[in-house]
Design goal:
The complex is a heterodimer of chains A (about 500) and B (about 475). With about 500 residues, chain A is α/β, with parallel strands linked by helices. Chain A is built from 15 helices and eleven strands. The longest helix of chain A is centred in the C-terminal third of the chain and has 24 residues, at about 375-395. The termini of chain A are close together. With about 475 residues, chain B is of the alpha+beta class. Chain B folds into three domains: about 5-295, no CATH class; about 305-420, no CATH class; about 430-485, Arc Repressor Mutant, subunit A (Orthogonal Bundle). Chain B is about 40% helix and about 20% strand. Chain B has 16 helices and 15 strands. Chain B has helices at about 40, 55-65, 175-190, 230-250, 295-305, 310-320, 325-330, 335-345, 350-370, 380-390, 395-405, 415-420, 430-440, 445-450, 455-465, 475-485, and strands at about 5-15, 75, 75-80, 90-95, 105-110, 120-130, 135, 150-155, 160-165, 200-210, 220-225, 255-260, 265-270, 285, 290. Chain B is elongated. Chain B starts with a strand and ends with a helix. The relative contact order of chain B is 0.10. The chains are: A alpha/beta (about 500), B alpha+beta (about 475). At the A-B interface, helix 9 of A face loops of B.
């Protein structure tokens, strides 16, 4: 059951072969069994989850269920969920119980999905290994000595270890796709503005985007049907007509389902820095895609190399301001002792934030300061525009862009914690899409030394349905998405 | 040396919207602390701002009212600083691209001493939308709070403000106060602000500097913060100006500073300079899209707007032949202007209406600290009284008695005249009889008049009015008396 697609799980429930309570309990039992070693979840609340499952069973019995009714899902602990502890992986919010639901949570509640719990993450989504979490690192289910990636590391490990049917994540510079690549499943970062950010704790507002993390493209499509949609409470939410993301799946003839599709391979994504074994996996995937009828051309994204420096100006700038609300005045961590207001601020924030968060607040404060703003912030905004222009030009030549998601496979825990720049390079292929606001996916494409490798698929704005179909066609002829780590079955 | 003071104002105008600028929380004043603080007002993790269109509407109205440039695209920026009543750790404001650009406000500076009244145009630099902060309540002694601690009330956090900034165009406290009053009237006239200064709906920061008269370079300014009455503004500017002149004449230098006015001592004093050294790290708010205003948006608002005070003033001058003084006094507030026009519509003579509105009514309202909306005399009733003066039924003096009765709540003008027996005697025969009687009894005065003593005429009129118990029509008395004396 645990390795079934969302569609099959839904059929199990619809046919009454299994109740949502039973299904939920199965996943809760697995969480009890495996979470102590993997640490994918920060908060599990059986009572709440089972109550939702019971309500879902009633809805199924009443015939009012939809596809995801009663399906147990994991929610990244960045989404406020009413009456759930919502920590964002930080000591600052270690005891914060959200009094309201994020839009994404409301959407899942409305279709009767079951919330299995809140998953671990890098503190305030700042990190690529889940090692900055106040609640401890998450272990990669494929090799417990390795990181699952980040920042959505808890959701990634939960999907990979089958501790949930599917999960949500957020992606500011690669936080859905990089862990999807490192943990061997399918993850989608939608077009910026497609999924409302309301109730999703902000890291870098102009880059943050929520998306699905699930075994297959089809599962991601079903999740997207629930998550995407206009929300008036988010001014950057796009008023894009509601789509059925499963509509394009399986509609083309099987022999050459991708005939007519032009795929661009950016030369910058296959240059120095890419691990040779990872490159081989990607090349094999390309061969498979050619069989499916896709045509490949070489393209260039000349400003792609500037993505990381631009990102590490803009994201910290926004973060430094977004995180100012954590001041110990109204909620969150407040220092036990202080003599005056200034000391209360300084101690509360010094104690409440971890190293990486502090580093980024400092960088952000610096680049916004009088005298530096033009040289850093404004310059970075200009380059951001150029990066978006690169993609615009590329999409005149091709329909889809492909490349590796991450330069290498999952690295050892502690390997990069002393070297922030090496850690930042994990996102070298994913950040540009956030800067441009484009949708990007990671699709499992094979293994290198028994560790998963992800293929990245980048589409034009609102091209999620097509991207999902491109991934789906590949997943019809490969089975990487159903591979499970040893020792968790 | 002769000095010149240079003054510019920044006014925080609280917009009259039902809900906050970036959330649906109520803006009503005076609720229990933190009962109007929704998740956005408290800045919970994950909340986002959504711009209140009504606030934009107000900004457009103001821009049109001062004939300003209204930006087709303006940008909300974050002003970053820490303070306990600023829940997000930043204020959403507008920095580089404000919604309203350059405009003009014409002020009437009243006569002071030997200086005559004059008009002056004050240039507006910009007006931008922003959110208000909450309130820090120090010295808590009640409400269950712990003594010695500060309380935070976030009811006001997120209330929409339009900050209106002038050029340094004013050259005296009188000009600054005239501008502040004019702006205060204008924002109420166009219905964007309730103007309640006690509740902080209209707060002025005044930038003051001095320079030797005849020079053009600006001196170093000090900013007097949060003045919430015109009287305090006058006092604060006067004190600050003199302080700066004294400092410079003593060989001192002015340091740029923020100062507070103490109404008890009448003095201004600089706040600690530590609070000055702020780098607000402004940057465009990524949670909000740029604000776009089209020509069509402006036209929609323009169509809803009523006549502006300047236009109405000019119309009153030409349509009713009112003096500049009367016209500007009547257009000093929308309520007064509307009242005046209703008196005229009900048939009241314009000149008399102006006199009564600016005279009797204003004096009564002033004495009882009431607005014209609270006047016990309806415009239609006042018009009735004026008609009775115009048609000669009662004299001006008698009208005052009728007015008193009306103020006390009686509304039937003719009934009052009847009851008090105030009807003028306009019957020529009756008046002639009284005059003959008075002339007969006052032959000495008649002789004096005939000998060239003009005063005797007035004395005779007085006697006649007395004899008629004030009811004789004075105009008729004058004419008939003159005829008889000249016979």
């Amino acid at each position: 059951m645990i390795n079934q697609s969302l569609k099959n799980l839904s059929q199990l429930l619809a046919s009454k072969a299994m109740s949502s309570v039973e299904m939920t309990q199965t996943f809760l039992d697995r969480i009890h069994q495996y979470n102590p070693s993997i640490n994918a979840y920060i908060t599990v609340d059986e009572e709440k989850s089972l109550a939702q499952a019971k309500a879902a069973d009633a809805s199924i019995a009443a015939g009012t269920a939809t596809v995801l009714t009663g399906i147990p899902l994991a929610q990244k602990d960045i989404f406020c969920a009413k009456d759930w502890k919502t920590t964002c992986g930080s000591k600052m919010l270690a005891n914060f119980i959200a009094p309201y639901d994020a839009h994404v949570i409301t959407q899942f509640n409305n279709v009767g999905a079951v919330n299995l719990g809140k998953t671990n993450m890098d503190e305030f989504a700042m990190g690529s290994s889940n090692e900055t979490s106040y609640f401890g690192g998450v272990k990669n289910p494929w090799d417990l000595t390795r990181v699952p990636g980040g920042s959505s590391g808890g959701s990634a490990a939960a999907v990979a270890a089958r501790l949930c049917a599917a999960a949500t994540g957020t992606d500011t510079g690669g936080s859905i796709r990089q862990p999807a690549s490192l943990c061997g499943f399918t993850g989608l970062k939608p077009t910026y503005g497609l999924v409302s950010r309301y109730g999703m704790i902000a890291f870098a507002s102009s880059l943050d985007q929520a998306g699905p993390m699930a075994k297959s493209a089809e599962d991601c499509a079903l999740m997207m049907n629930v998550m995407a949609g206009f929300d008036a409470r988010d001014s950057t939410s796009l008023n894009h007509p509601k789509e059925d993301y499963t509509a394009q799946l399986n509609q083309t003839p099987f022999s050459q389902p991708l005939a007519g599709l032009t795929v661009g391979l950016p030369k910058e994504y296959f240059a120095e820095g890419l691990d040779g074994d990872v490159a081989k996996v990607i090349e094999t995937a390309i061969v498979e895609y050619k069989k499916l009828g896709a045509e490949f051309i070489d393209i260039s994204l000349p400003n792609a190399s500037l993505s990381i420096p631009v990102y590490y100006v803009l994201a910290p700038a926004e973060a430094s301001s977004n995180l100012s609300r954590y001041d110990g005045v109204r909620y969150g961590h407040r220092a036990a002792e202080y003599d005056d207001l200034m000391e209360m601020y300084m101690k509360s924030r010094a104690e409440g934030f971890g190293e990486e968060v502090k580093r980024r607040i400092l960088i952000g404060t610096y680049v916004l300061s009088a005298g530096y703003y033009d040289a850093y912030y404004l310059k970075a905004q200009k380059i951001r525009h150029l990066i978006a222009e690169d993609f615009k030009a590329a999409f005149k030549q091709c329909d889809i862009i492909m490349g590796p998601t991450v330069p290498s496979t999952a690295f050892k825990i502690g390997e990069k914690t002393g070297d922030p720049i090496a850690m930042y390079l994990q996102d070298i292929y994913t950040i540009a899409t956030n800067l441009a606001g484009l949708p990007g996916m990671s699709v499992p494409a094979g293994f290198s030394n028994d560790l998963p490798v992800g293929l990245q698929i980048i589409g034009n704005y609102f091209d999620e349905a097509r991207m999902l179909n491109v991934a789906h066609a590949y997943q019809q002829v490969t089975d990487w998405q159903t591979a499970m780590p040893k020792g968790i079955a | 040396m002769e000095w010149e003071v240079v003054i510019g104002l920044e006014t925080h105008t609280q917009l009259k919207t039902k809900t906050k600028i970036f959330s649906g929380a109520s803006t009503a004043y005076g609720a229990e602390p933190n009962t109007q603080a929704c998740e956005v007002s408290i800045a919970l993790p994950g909340v986002l701002p959504v711009l209140n269109k009504e606030a934009v509407h107000c900004a457009i109205k103001f821009g049109l009212a001062i004939d300003a440039e209204i930006a087709p695209r303006s940008v909300f920026a974050r002003k970053n600083y820490f303070y306990p009543d600023l829940p997000k750790g930043y204020q959403i404001s507008q920095f580089e691209l404000p919604v309203v650009g350059k405009g003009k406000v014409t002020i009437q500076v009243p006569a002071v001493g030997k200086n005559e009244a004059y008009e002056k145009v004050i240039n507006i630099t910009r007006a931008h939308l922003e959110e208000d902060a909450g309130k820090s309540v120090h010295d808590l002694k009640s409400g269950g709070a712990v003594e010695g601690m500060s309380g935070i009330d976030l009811n006001r956090a997120g209330t929409p403000l339009l900050e209106i900034v002038t050029e340094p165009d004013m050259r005296s406290a009188a000009e600054a106060v005239a501008y502040a009053k004019k702006l205060h009237e204008l924002v109420q006239w166009i219905g964007i602000c309730d103007g309640n200064m006690q509740e902080g709906s209209f707060r002025c920061d005044v930038n003051v500097s001095v320079r030797p008269k005849g020079t053009t370079e600006l001196g170093t300014r000090r900013e007097i913060k949060n003045l919430n009455s015109f009287k305090f503004m006058q006092q604060a500017i006067a004190y600050e100006t003199q302080w700066q002149i004294d400092t410079l004449e003593d060989g001192g230098k002015i340091q740029q500073a923020t100062v507070l006015f103490n109404p008890d001592t009448g003095e201004t004093r600089a706040m600690r300079s530590k609070e000055e050294a702020n780098d607000y790290r402004y940057f465009p708010d990524p949670d909000l899209l740029p604000l776009e205003i089209t020509e069509a948006d402006k036209e929609t608002v323009r169509a809803e707007m009523t006549e502006l005070p300047e236009a109405m003033k000019v119309r009153l001058e030409s349509e009713y032949a009112l003096s500049v003084y009367d016209a500007s006094a009547i257009t000093s507030s929308k309520e007064v202007a509307d009242y005046f026009e209703r008196v005229i519509q009900a048939g009241g003579d314009a000149k008399l209406a102006a006199n009564w509105v600016m005279g009797g009514i204003a004096a009564k309202l002033n004495a009882e600290d009431k607005s014209i909306a609270e006047s016990p005399i309806d415009a239609v009733v006042l018009a009735q009284l004026i008609k009775r003066i115009s048609d000669g039924t009662i004299s001006n003096n008698a009208a005052k008695q009728v007015f008193e009765a009306m103020w006390s709540g009686e509304s039937d003008v003719d009934a009052i005249i009847e009851a008090k027996g105030l009807k003028q005697v306009s019957d020529t025969g009756a008046i002639e009889a009284i005059i003959d009687e008075v002339l007969g009894a006052n032959q000495t005065m008649v002789e004096e008049f005939k000998a060239g003593k003009e005063k005797a005429f007035n004395a005779l009129v007085g006697q006649i009015m007395k004899a008629s118990k004030g009811k004789a029509n004075p105009a008729q008395v004058n004419v008939i008396l003159k005829e008889k004396l000249n016979d």
